[in-house]
């Protein structure tokens, strides 16, 4: 059931003009975080997409408020469990969504990294957060629901 909800949401947020998202309504509170590990360059790139109305209502609408909220609700941790220094870009509007990015340099891609994705989970009990990880030419999707803690990247 969780997977079916996640797939339905992913279609609604990633296909421009799809379903109820095009009319400014959405049946789920959700976001997608895409993480790309570049082993050769020792970099980790992130791109988060969330509904602008939900994020603005919960986090505020100023760039500083949005970046502070993302920093408090998304974490990448290294092998020791210590958070890595994620510096979010100023979120940009893309239709019904806000998109923010980050790049971490000097990341050992062979190390055991973990992610916590709790964006909007404290505000909406039906929040669905997806993390799509691309590493070594393979991709995997992780599903985070309210109350979920950090998990190792696949």
Please, how many helices?
3
How are the strands of the largest sheet arranged? Answer: 4-5-2-1-7-8
Quickly give the structural class.
alpha+beta
| Backbone CA Rg | 15 Å
Distance between the termini: 21 Å
Main beta sheet strand tally, sense and closure = 6 strands, mixed
Query: Approximately what portion of the residues adopt beta-strand conformation?
Result: 35-45%
Order of helices and strands: HEEHHEEEEEEE
What is the number of beta strands?
A: 9
- Average pLDDT, to the nearest integer? 86
Low-pLDDT regions? 5-24
Anisotropy-based shape: globular
Q: What's the helical proportion of residues? A: 10-25%
Describe the model.
With 154 residues, this protein is of the alpha+beta class. Helix content is 21%, strand content 36%. It contains three helices and nine strands. The strands form two sheets. The chain has a six-stranded mixed β-sheet with strand order 4-5-2-1-7-8. Strands 3-6-9 form a three-stranded antiparallel β-sheet. The protein is globular. The relative contact order is 0.22. Residues 5-24 have low confidence and may be disordered.
């Amino acid at each position: 059931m969780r997977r079916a909800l996640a797939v339905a949401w992913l279609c609604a947020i990633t296909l421009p003009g799809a379903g109820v998202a095009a009319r400014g309504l959405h049946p789920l509170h959700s976001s997608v975080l895409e993480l790309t590990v570049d082993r050769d360059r020792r970099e980790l790139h992130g791109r988060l997409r969330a509904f602008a109305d939900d994020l603005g209502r919960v986090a505020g609408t100023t760039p500083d408020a949005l970046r502070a909220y993302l920093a408090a609700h998304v974490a990448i941790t290294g092998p020791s469990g210590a958070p890595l220094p994620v510096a979010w870009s100023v979120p940009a509007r893309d239709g019904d969504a806000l998109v923010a990015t980050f790049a971490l340099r000097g990341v050992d891609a062979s190390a055991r990294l973990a992610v916590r994705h709790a964006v909007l989970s404290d505000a909406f009990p039906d929040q669905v957060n997806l993390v799509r990880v691309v590493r070594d030419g393979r991709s995997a999707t992780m599903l985070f629901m309210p109350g979920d803690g950090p998990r190792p990247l696949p």
